[in-house]
Amino acid sequence: MDIIMVQVISSIFATYGFGIVFNVKGNKIIYASICGGLGWLIYSLLDYNGFTNLVSYTAASSGITIYSELLAKKLKIPTISLLFPSMIPLVPGGGIYFTMYNLVQDNINGAIEKGIETFVISGAITIGILIVSTFSQIYYYIIKNKEIDNRYI
Q1: I need a surface site. Which of 107, 118, 125, 141 has the fewest CB within 10 A?
Q2: Residue 21 CB burial class (10 angstroms; 0-12, 13-18, ≥19)
Q3: Where are the domains of the chain?
Q4: What is the pTM of this model?
Q5: Distance separating alpha carbons of residues 90 and 88, to the nearest angstrom
Q6: Which GO terms describe its biological process (predicted)?
């Protein structure tokens, strides 16, 4: 469990660094960093308990997206400004590297295996973002229209 905490702290610092690269200003970079750490914590706990990559990455990206959506509404900023840097710890860069490494080493089976794993991880991250973003848009649409309907009643 100690290694998970070291990884979470490392992901907070990595997210902070990418927040600088993505030009996230003020205290928003702190919120994005905490969000990146939260996402990695969700992933690590699920992975530690034996869940598949699909479930772990989907839950982690969903958690990051929920946090980003709620905080963006509170701070009145675009969700994407928190979401982009926060997803950096989950991005399967190592999988992409090892896919290409296996191709260069002429290990086609290893490249296919790593490529499929990387594709599944990328899809899981996308699914998590898509589900939460869609439901939050529907929720805010309903709330907005309910307020409009209540004014005319």
Answers
A1: 141
A2: exposed
A3: 2-151
A4: 0.88
A5: 5
A6: succinate transport
